[in-house]
Design brief:
Blueprint lengths: L12 E10 L2 E11 L4 E5 L6 H8 L7 E6 L2 E2 L4 H4 L3 E4 L11 H9 L8 H7 L15 H12 L6 E5 L7 H16 L3 E6 L2 H7 L2 E6 L2 E6 L1 H8 L3 E6 L6 H5 L4 E7 L2 E6 L2 H14 L8 E4 L2 H9 L6
Parallel strand pairs: 3-8, 3-9, 6-7, 7-8
Antiparallel strand pairs: 1-2, 1-4, 4-5, 9-10, 11-13, 11-14, 12-13
Helix pairs in contact: 3-4, 8-11
């Protein structure tokens, strides 16, 4: 997207050295990033990483301790009310009026704005047609999440915030919502998404910031994040007693040794030589490297390398 002058348009979100603490806990500790118009930007990290606090500041729901935050050109700290009609927000846990039906809740929220999407169109978009007259208290967790996203779209927003939108959904419902998010992007909307699902981030996000302990550890496209840290392939197998890390690290081609859920991960630039050495060492110990597999490095490997643990830990 370009500006009228022919250059690159200003980012829809610009965050500079954002900080927010609760007592001794630094929930957000010097976060900086930008989100370009018409893209999906992901904040990826475990629960407690600071993702939700960051997003709540961007939405004007929390006041930061320090830092500069501009969303759609608005200084969120000084003028949060100017921003709210222009954004849509799907919170991690939405409190819905339990005795109102799906259509009644959508009509109610749409009435808060001077313009918006027709209720019928939102019901169809979120595949809630069969539940249109169902009270929100009787919806499943996945249906409630889809309604929450629908409510974030009632004002036809320029920018949509989705905080862990697929938490609690089964795999089929999660993929259905991914299709909806990608459709929103195709309409030209900008989306900021928080998630702790690797696959979700890889499929949906144009750019990703990996967060942990209130800080952004790395940012870029999936390809950039992987290529910065890994030129290697990953060899995975079940851990073998007495096959020590020093011996693994000394095998030909091995650049690093990691562990994840009882598995060994060897990163290597010479797959045949490394596998040969693993088989030879296992044979000496009277064992076999069960579930031996080779794959390219992934976003999961990046997170493991950055934090020393898997995201699901």
């Amino acid at each position: 997207m370009t500006s009228a002058a022919g250059g690159v348009a200003d980012p829809v979100i610009r965050v500079d050295d954002l900080k927010k603490a609760y007592g001794e806990t630094r929930a957000v500790d010097g976060v900086s990033f930008e989100v370009r118009a018409g893209t999906i930007f992901g904040l990826l990290g475990p629960n407690g990483a600071g993702k939700t606090t960051t997003v709540e500041v961007l939405e004007g729901l929390r006041t930061p301790d320090s830092g500069a935050v501009r969303v759609l050109g608005v200084d969120v700290v000084s003028h949060p009310d100017e921003l709210k009609p222009r954004i849509g927000v799907s919170l991690q846990t939405a409190a819905l009026y339990p005795r109102l039906t799906v259509v009644e809740v959508l009509d109610l929220f749409r009435g808060f704005y001077g313009h918006g999407r027709p209720t019928g169109a939102l019901v169809e978009l979120m595949d809630l047609g069969e539940k249109r007259t169902t009270r929100t208290q009787d919806l499943s967790g996945g249906q409630r999440q889809r309604l929450s996203v629908a409510l974030a779209l009632v004002n036809d927003p320029e920018l949509v915030f989705l905080d862990e939108p697929t938490t609690g959904m089964d795999p089929a419902a999660r993929r259905a919502l991914w299709d909806i998010v990608l459709a929103l992007k195709s309409e030209g909307r900008s989306i900021l998404l928080t998630t702790h699902y690797m696959e979700e981030a890889e499929i949906l996000c144009d750019r990703i910031a990996i967060m942990d302990h209130g800080r952004i550890l790395e940012e870029g496209t999936v390809e950039e994040l992987v290529s910065r840290r890994f030129k290697d392939r990953a060899i995975r197998f079940d851990a073998i007693d007495r096959l020590t890390d020093p011996r693994l690290a000394a095998m030909p081609g091995v650049s690093s040794v990691k562990h994840e859920d009882g598995d060994v991960l060897l990163y290597t630039r010479d797959v045949p030589a490394t596998i040969g050495a693993v088989l030879e060492a296992a044979d000496e110990l009277g064992a076999e490297p069960a579930n031996l597999a080779v794959r390219r490095a992934t976003l999961e490997d990046v997170f493991l390398d950055l934090t020393g643990r898997a995201l699901r830990d």
